[in-house]
Amino acid sequence: MESHTQHVLKVPVDKVQHDLEEISIQVQRDLQDLVAELQFSLEEKTEQCQPKLEEENEQVQHQLDETTTWIETEMEKMVSHILYDLNVPADQFEHDLEDILIQIQRDLESSLEEKAEHIKFNLDESAAEVQPELEENAALIQSELGIKPTTPHCELLEQTKFHHFISLENFVLHKVLGKGSFGKDNLCFVMEYINGGDLFFHIEDKGRFDLVSTQFYAAEMTCGLQFLHRHGVIYRDLKLENVMLDRDGHIKIVDFGLSKDNMLGDKRALSFCGSEHYIAPEIFQGQHYFSPVDWWAFGVVIFEMLTGESPFYGADRDELCMSVCMDIPQYPNWINQESNDLLVKLLEKDPNHRLGTVGNIREHPFFKSIDWTKLEKRELEPPFKPKMVDYNDFRYFDKEFLKETPKMSQGDSSYIGPMDQSVFADFSFINSKLFSTY
């Protein structure tokens, strides 16, 4: 036993360490090989399971879609039953709901405007209290520096006095741009007063227009659009609400807030704008566009005048977009051949082949009864003349608009100040302080 122990103890330590290192290295290699085999096996099994997982995922998604559709259908049935029990037409229910939402929005806007007016009034009061002190300090400084106030400066001080209440006495009217006016304390551009109502109002009243009325209004709109296009302007918001009748029954195209000028030659626009039911396919598709978008909207307007309905429908913007870009309008069989042909050529999906852009729209058979020379001179008798007692007759305006309280808008001096004031050089009244900086 003793000799064996002595023999074991005689084994060199470095030999043992060497053996242990080799064993450790071998174990690490074996472990790495095992991990690699497991990883490969896992990847192989994952690849095998992937199609099955995707298939199961598609099945779950399909079941989810079916369930969602079923829930929506059941909800629609429940709403229909409720409306039936209450004896309320579905379209009336939607209309009432829209009215409620509109009223809520107006109430909120009115509340916010009142708060803004209250804040503005308080600011004006504070400014009015400080104003005399500022003028006194300015006079003292000018006196110490030996500076005498100039006449323009005195006029400017007079113009910038604060007024808590705006009345006609606060305004000095200066004729500008034909039918515009400026106020002493507020810049006001007074546009032509047109109280014959818009075409949307008259369509709602009549249901639709007869052929003669449609031809007349369409012909006058054609003159207006061609004038704009000749001068490099695309209108981009032609719709029934933006076509009004004057006292004599002639049309006036109004609201140029979305118009774009300098669109001559190869110039193109890309902005998404317009009223949804009148937007051309190329705008929905995000393409560059130019004047043909107006002729598309013109086609929609004529369709609405003749039928009292829109040629395209959709529950939301996406559905309406698909309808405009993909659907062929259903033309009633009671409209004549000339009207049908005109609509087909105006509602052409390809803007480069759309009537108005190609061909002479005035020569189309739809307008065969129109004397264009007399029309442009306003010598043709309109088919309808608004019946008004006087200029204060508002019968052709929606009563909702008449309930609104007129208020002065608040200008942003930080925006107006840096503008190029030279564009106002020919105006009959300008702010000399701003113009002198040019």
Automatic annotation (TrEMBL):
Xref: InterPro entries: AGC-kinase_C (IPR000961), Kinase-like_dom_sf (IPR011009), Pkinase_C (IPR017892), Prot_kinase_dom (IPR000719), Ser/Thr_kinase_AS (IPR008271)
Location of the AGC-kinase C-terminal domain: 368-438
Alphabetized SMART domains for the sequence: S_TK_X, S_TKc
Domain Protein kinase: 73-367
Entry's transmembrane regions: none
Stored Gene3D superfamilies: Phosphorylase Kinase, domain 1 (3.30.200.20), Transferase(Phosphotransferase) domain 1 (1.10.510.10)
Coiled coil: none
Domain of life: Eukaryota
GO molecular function, one term: protein serine/threonine kinase activity
UniProt keyword terms in alphabetical order: ATP-binding, Kinase, Nucleotide-binding, Phosphoprotein, Serine/threonine-protein kinase, Transferase
PANTHER family registered for this protein in UniProt: RIBOSOMAL PROTEIN S6 KINASE
Protein known as: Protein kinase C
Species of provenance: Synaphobranchus kaupii (Kaup's arrowtooth eel)
